Amino acid sequence: MECNDYNITRDLERKNLNLNPLQRGGVLPREAREALHDFGDGYSVCDYCSGRLDEIAKPSISGFLEDLSKFLKVDDVRTTHGARESKFIVMHSICEPGDVIVVDGNAHYTTHLAAERAGLEIIEVPNSRYPEFRVDMDVYEETLKNSIDEYGEIKLAVLTHVDGDYGNLTDAKSFGNFCNKLNVPSLLNCAYSMGRLPIDANGWNIDFVVGSGHKSMAASGPIGVLGMKHEWAETLLKRSPRHTKKEIEMLGCTSRGAPIATLMASLPHVVSRVNNWNEEVELSRSFVAKLEEIEGITQLGIRPTNHDLVRFDTPILHEISKIHPRKGFFLYEELKSRNIVGIKRGQTEWFKCSTYGMSKDQRDYITDSFKEIVEKFAK
Amino acid sequence: MECNDYNITRDLERKNLNLNPLQRGGVLPREAREALHDFGDGYSVCDYCSGRLDEIAKPSISGFLEDLSKFLKVDDVRTTHGARESKFIVMHSICEPGDVIVVDGNAHYTTHLAAERAGLEIIEVPNSRYPEFRVDMDVYEETLKNSIDEYGEIKLAVLTHVDGDYGNLTDAKSFGNFCNKLNVPSLLNCAYSMGRLPIDANGWNIDFVVGSGHKSMAASGPIGVLGMKHEWAETLLKRSPRHTKKEIEMLGCTSRGAPIATLMASLPHVVSRVNNWNEEVELSRSFVAKLEEIEGITQLGIRPTNHDLVRFDTPILHEISKIHPRKGFFLYEELKSRNIVGIKRGQTEWFKCSTYGMSKDQRDYITDSFKEIVEKFAK
Ligand SMILES: Cc1ncc(COP(=O)(O)O)c(C=O)c1O
Ligand SMILES: Cc1ncc(COP(=O)(O)O)c(C=O)c1O
């Protein structure tokens, strides 16, 4: 048979400044590119396996997991295929179909899908609505208490540490503590935080932390992280009665290939970048301040921002789209001609973006470009 | 914190002839190495996503899935994280905990784990035992009928197309047909066949076919394939009521990174190598014949073999290990010194191996090396 041409090339990231928040934390550092090259083939990490992925000594997956658990301050840790797969593992192993869980109102769609796949009912904690969309811990605690009153038992409480819509950072420690007090297992979704900012699972009293290697840990996708308090290991990491080395929820082995090699190679880089998180937030804030110098561009979410992912209301861009011959496409095209990408084609009323990891000059080039575009077209 | 040294290098495949059957079908061709390079970063395939991984147009995942379904002669197809994850998706979506399924006696441990994770009971079809370990379709059909009599309903019948212990090829067409007649959904595990030999899912009347990209389709792991008759799509690919584009069992998106780019890049190569399968089997048979020239080495499983994975009883090597100063390690070390790897350290009573994709000269070098080693040490 003749195959279609799949157009399998990508130079978007090499040739442009990419504002897509999804892509900023997954860019591979040099060490990870080398690992990708060495571990490209099939089951490359399995050469010296004697039955347990997490115990492989060459490359030292066991040594890596030890470091990872220290880094996250968590008792036990495994790699999975992604944050969503980690969430599903938790829900599938500690809940029964029909059970009720509580989830914050800024949860990622994958939290909802994991719950739907596990047959669970979701109670939602409302956010504070426009313009902050904040998830308040008082509101969460109250919703959780009411849910316990109503349903008798709540099997899991999920909090998005940093959400993907507004980049709002939530109060994990308060969450961990009231969940613990109310005897409800807590899951913190760190897809947008683990690998960007410090995680202290035990310090925050969190039962389960999940992370995303390709989203925030400079790894090649798909790969996720699942950390847990030791008391959960017996349930989540239960072994097969028939194949006694193999963990059932992991289907024996999870990330058996290049992604785990890149996650491992990136860990030292990630550990060190997390130490510079405050500077990153400063850069993000000054990026926001500069964009907001344009009249008709306003940051939504908590102010000042505590994250690199920021969302803007951009009525001025929408105004321009109404009079511009290229309509809603003008913004994408003007940015593209300046080698800036990552804002969806046709979108002008609002956008979210991230400049994570960019230099100050690159960020200034981006804000200057926005200014130039608005000046060029605004009446 | 200081990270451990994880020793993240691999030149095993580059510098040696690797007999490990797990590794032979996952070696990347040049095109896939290029895709790996281009799509190394994080969520690299997601630049132009508008909500559905399987519908992405750049790179053309949609065009690829169209070709893949033609290649497998199956109605609908998705990528997953591996053969085991595909099996779990099928079991989780069409069975309920407590249901009974029938599985062949040569099933891979991941079939058992997928069933255990889904809470299913397994009835096993015995194989024919030493020396062939054949799974006969008459025996399968009888076991299936008896199980229906005993349990009322059998929710799924699983057959390993080519097993990982003996490389026995089973009769998929006969299996598909009697399952259909008995009204039991059939799943064919093609982890060791899809990408090596032709698959004709619809021609064989099979409900579900699963494959492994890193095992047999020249892809970087982890990535799997799940094909199904169209009548199952509504159940398996059910969309979320809340996020109406997203398929629940896929948790929205599965292989969101480099592995799918390599699988796509490799497909034309894989399509063409499957056409040469008969030659591959001939080469495997002559490899077996040459090794069997050594007294005390005998192939197990169906003879002549129909696959590149072959298992040998090797009493002569075990005899040598009893008198050799390096004991059971002698074989590994002698082979290693000849740049031949992939047989476990310490193993001498039997081994399985594959020379898939090697040239005739390379295969001859390997059989000659075994002869040399045996001659050197046998009394
Ligand atoms: C908050 C949040 N959680 C989870 C995910 C999903 O991560 P993964 O691809 O690792 O499942 C995302 C991805 O966008 C996210 O933003
Ligand atoms: C017969 C068979 N099925 C399934 C698997 C697992 O494949 P995957 O890693 O894609 O889950 C293997 C791997 O060894 C196998 O030999």
TrEMBL record, chains A, B:
Protein name: O-phospho-L-seryl-tRNA:Cys-tRNA synthase
Provenance organism: Methanobrevibacter arboriphilus
